[in-house]
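Q: Convert this sequence to structure tokens.
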Amino acid sequence: MSIKPWRDIAVPHRDVLKGTFQEAEFAADISQVHQGKAPPEYQNAVQFFARTFITEGMALLLDSVVKRLAGLGGDPIIQLQTAFGGGKTHSMLAAYHLAKGDYPASELHGVPPIIDAAEIGELPKGRTAVIDGINLSVSEPKAHGAIRCHTLWGELAWQLGGEAGYSLVKSADVLGTSPDKDTVIALLSQAAPCVILMDELVAFYRQFQDGRSYPAGTFETNMTFIQALTESIKSVPKVIMLASLPDSQNAGEGRGQVVLAELESYFRRLHKIWKPVTKDEAFSIVRRRLFEKIEDQKALDETCRAFSQFYVSHQDDLPADTQEGRYLDRLKQAFPIHPEIFDRLYEDWSTLAGFQRTRGVLQLLAQVVHRLWKDGNADLMIMPGALPLYDATVRNKCLDFLRQGWDPVIDQDIDGESSKPAFIETQEARFGKIQAARRCARTVFLGSAPATASKATKGIDLERVLLGVAQPDQPIGHYKDALRRLVDRCNYINVENNRFWFDITPNLRREMETRKQRFTDGEDIQPLLRTEIGKVLGRGQLFGGVHVFAPSIDVPDEAGSGPRLVVLPTSAPYSKSAARMAEEAAEDILRNRGPQPRQKQNRLLFLAPDYDMVSRLKDQARSFLAWKTIVSDIETEKLIVDTIQVRQAKKQKDEAEQTLLRLTRDTYRWILCPNQELVGGTPKPQVKWEAVAVVTAGNGLVQQVEARVRDEEWIIAEWSPIHLANLLRSFYFKDGATDVGGMKVWQDTCNYLYLPRLLNQEVFERAIAQGIESEDFFGVASGKEDDKYLGFAFGRQALLALDGSALFIEKETAASYKKELQPPAPQLEPGGAQPQSTSSRGAQSGPAPATGVSPPQPWPGGGAMPVKSHFYGTVQLNPIKAKMDFATIVDEVVQQFTSRVDIQVRISVEIEAVNPKGFDESVQRAVRENCNVLKFSSAEFEEE
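A:
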């Protein structure tokens, strides 16, 4: 279903469309109507009722007027007392037109039902008298031809009865004394049926000063007349008086309050208080006055229903009253203006001095509708978020009622092409598409501007903001994000407990923005980022060290326990299209260690920041530092702020720190791996850089880096012997070479970028151990003397100490050498008998052992050479260096035995310590306990 925008459903009146209306037209002036000088929509009864919505209060008032004029009862006196702009003058005008009877009741919109309800066939014409207190002077008589009316009663008599009526009160008028009650009754009886309309009485009576007499009489005589008039009206059946009194707040100070209290004391006995316009009735009043007609009632219903369903589907984000069934009725009553506009104007703006509940709303909304129509606004309804504060007329109408100082707030933080909300929308398409930032800012202004200086609880709830901006089929989440962006960027917006408000006092954000300029990259930003990167990196398992922003001289040049990760500074960012800065910075560390060339180049990997994120990261670092100094100054009372701002500053600091950590993770996402290509077996001199992005979500960043380099096989933690054999064949066993130093191969893998990057030496040694168990790869030896391999192993388990003498032996060479070590096959004597050997005793020995070991050779002196089957060794160790010396003995001597399967080795440690003065108890106790734990077979202290 396609929902039509408001402009396709509701058509504004011609004067609203053209902008030809005058604001004064919304200010009903009963004196101008009485004198025939008012605009047609007020002067002409048909036009007046066509644009007037008869509220419940007005209907009750007109019912009394109709009945009273027809002599069927009704209230004789009705007091209209409401707040300024409550619609009382408009109601008095309705009574005026009804009494004059210039047109039949059937032509007056909304009047026939009132006549029918009163059961009156035809409404009689009546006389009308309009007493406008502002239009009367206590010292200047009112001239009507030859007659000059000095007093209130003289003016009333003239309007009701002309010269004949004036003659009844002439003497009292000239003398300034109140006429008696009978005279007033006689006047009213001659004029009946009639309607007396008294407006702004307080303004007239305020002119009297105590103890002074004026042509209009004294204060006391005028009050006496009011008493006589009210009592006389009660006595005359077809006379009704409507008196307008302001509420105490609008009566003025001093004299005005005294006058109001005095008048109320007379009216209270006989009057009926008129019911003012309700907020929901204002919907129809505004629609009737501003809009000519509804073009498509079905489309109106569909639009309102779509809003209602949208609100139900987002009940967690919107106010509870939107979930009630009557809210759909409110939408229909207010259309095309959203009820939230009326709620804010009637609940918040009507509290401002000078803002009139009905007239002020009409004046403002007429300007709004005109501007939106002119600009082609295509919203489904006219909502708070559409308030065109960029229009000077609309803005000035709002600012008329607010404190000074709102102009820069609107220009910078709320509306206009140069405002921050407009800039935010240009930065992100999802905001710009629906004007999310400006709509949020306008809604917050409408809901918070009137109350920022008066209410203890400031601001408008988030749910009310969303109600003022979101339309069906729009993502509410975009508006939430836009609102957060406003809080981050704007200088005059405030937020606490999900309540938002604008104020003319800058928030701490402006102070923060000013302080951001203090911090330099070298002295402030880089040290902070070094700390933050340390937090996000966490701990890993592969790398032997992580070096953040380290100069080349501080990155060790050694094989170590694992490759090293070098984190590049923000001055060396990386992207696929802008890799030069990162690669040059990394290559400088790769090639050099300070002034010296680097040897172990294949032990380095690099982590680089993303080119597009660096500026944002630095800006966030400055923001955090600024908030940090603000909080510090608040705590030390160098900066004086209110309680709300204290909480805001601390919250902003915490949020800035969390954002900085997140941005740090998101920025450092590129792993750079140096490599060298081989051409014909020869490496190219230039470094080839490979780069992959790391996933920054999850646990520690270094763990994510380690996982990625494992996947890319840039660090090898498990290495098959076949790869080692291929490496040996490709680079070492060529041009006649049959062996190569084991330590040289390991060191080469640490040095050269074209060789595999092993995790550590243990990975290398495990590949060796696995390889020599088979005859498919290579042989090893612990050394070589002349052409003899010492500690040779090929096709069997063995331990190889990877030192300077350890060797890899080419596979075929190792196989040949192993074959040479095997003993020759025994020779058979003629006849097939085994050769005999004679012992030193002359006895024949058995067959030669088939162990692969050469049989014992005869001694020079005769007999067989004895077999040496036991080894004993004793050495004195320096107690200070015993640990180091013992390790050397194990490597050089013990390992010669343990590397062979058929040798049993037993090591005993003998310790002797002598102290001529004797050992104290603490030493004896500690030694005994430790020896017991270490399972010494014997450990005793003895006397000398």
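The first strand starts at residue 10 and ends at 12.
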